[in-house]
């Protein structure tokens, strides 16, 4: 079930008060239109009716796609210490409530960045597993090691047997694209499965570049 609440928000820019609908939970099967709005970056985004200032609402949100067996817990924060605390809270409450036992065969993801949330949804919508995609993103960024720190690589789209990634360079202030054949994804995915990676979760997971680095170093999630 999709759940929302109304909040009165004071614009940090001009001080104008306005009402914002905040979504705490989105279930895709109930609310396909809401998913469209989310992918357009409109959900939980405050937009001041007076001065047009926009800002992400600091509200946690649960995204549930029953058909894809995907659940994403989104808690917006830039603070790495808080991120770890929130992640621990999600894991503990999911275990204590017995919810975890009901989510067998699910992919459970914990996310703190809005763009990353949208990227995850797109990856699973295209029928890919984000663990293999994160490994490919590492490989793309490692082609130019000197600049990998100043770049972010994101899944773009899949078309005509080719997966397109967008590479944003913050120093050069440029966006590049890089394409990888779908066959390459299949090979990487299969070799990760052979080496013990499970295509579903046993607990909430943060699947990012550090996760991909650990995967390449032989770590897997079947513990
Ligand atoms: Zn304003």
Describe the structure.
The protein has 223 residues and is α+β, with helices and mostly antiparallel strands. The protein has one domain. It is 31% helix and 29% strand. It is built from 6 helices and 10 strands. A 5-stranded mixed β-sheet has the order 1-2-5-6-7, with helices on one face. Strand 6, helix 2 and strand 7 form a beta-alpha-beta unit. Helix 4 crosses helix 5 and helix 4 crosses helix 6. The longest helix is centred in the middle third of the chain and has 17 residues. The two termini are 32 Å apart. The mean pLDDT is 94. The chain binds zinc ion. Zinc ion (ZN) binds next to loops.
Distinctive features:
223 residues; 6 helices; 10 strands; 3-stranded antiparallel β-sheet; alpha+beta; binds zinc ion
Précis, in short:
The protein has 223 residues and is α+β, with helices and mostly antiparallel strands.
Describe the secondary structure blueprint for this structure.
Blueprint: E1 3-10, E2 17-27, H1 32-39, E3 45-47, E4 54-56, E5 61-65, E6 70-74, H2 80-96, E7 107-111, H3 114-125, H4 130-141, E8 151-159, E9 162-169, E10 174-181, H5 182-194, H6 209-216
Parallel strand pairs: 2-5, 6-7
Antiparallel strand pairs: 1-2, 3-4, 5-6, 8-9, 9-10
The protein binds zinc ion.
Residues 11, 13-14, 16, 48, 50-51, 53 line the site of zinc ion.
Within the largest sheet, what's the order of strands? 1-2-5-6-7
- Provide mean pLDDT, rounded: 94
Coarse shape: globular
Show unreliable segments: none
Fraction of residues in helix: 25-40%
The tally of beta strands, per DSSP, is: 10
Strand content: 25-35%
Tally of DSSP helical segments: 6
The hetero compounds bound to this protein are: zinc ion
Radius of gyration: 19 Å
Question: SSE order in H/E notation?
Answer: EEHEEEEHEHHEEEHH
Span between termini: 32 Å
Sheet with most strands: 5 strands, mixed
Please indicate the count of domains.
1
């Amino acid at each position: 079930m999709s759940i929302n609440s109304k909040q009165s928000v004071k614009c940090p820019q001009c001080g104008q008060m306005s009402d914002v609908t905040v979504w705490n939970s989105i279930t895709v099967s109930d609310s396909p239109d809401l998913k469209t709005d989310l992918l357009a970056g409109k959900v939980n985004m405050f937009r001041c009716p007076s001065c047009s200032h926009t800002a992400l609402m600091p509200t946690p949100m649960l995204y549930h796609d029953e058909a894809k067996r995907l659940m994403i817990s989104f808690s917006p924060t830039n603070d790495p210490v808080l991120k770890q605390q929130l992640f621990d809270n999600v894991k503990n409450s999911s275990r204590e409530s017995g919810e975890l036992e009901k989510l067998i065969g699910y992919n459970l993801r914990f996310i703190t960045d809005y763009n990353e949330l949208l990227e995850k949804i797109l990856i699973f919508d295209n029928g890919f597993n984000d663990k293999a995609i994160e490994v490919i993103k590492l490989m793309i960024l490692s082609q130019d090691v000197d600049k990998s720190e100043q770049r972010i690589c994101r899944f773009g789209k899949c078309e005509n047997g080719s997966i397109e990634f967008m590479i944003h360079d913050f120093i050069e202030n440029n966006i590049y694209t890089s394409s990888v054949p779908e066959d390459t994804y299949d090979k990487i995915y299969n070799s990760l499965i052979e080496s013990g990676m499970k295509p579903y979760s046993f607990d909430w997971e943060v699947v990012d570049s550090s996760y991909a680095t650990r995967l390449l170093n032989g770590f897997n999630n079947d513990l």
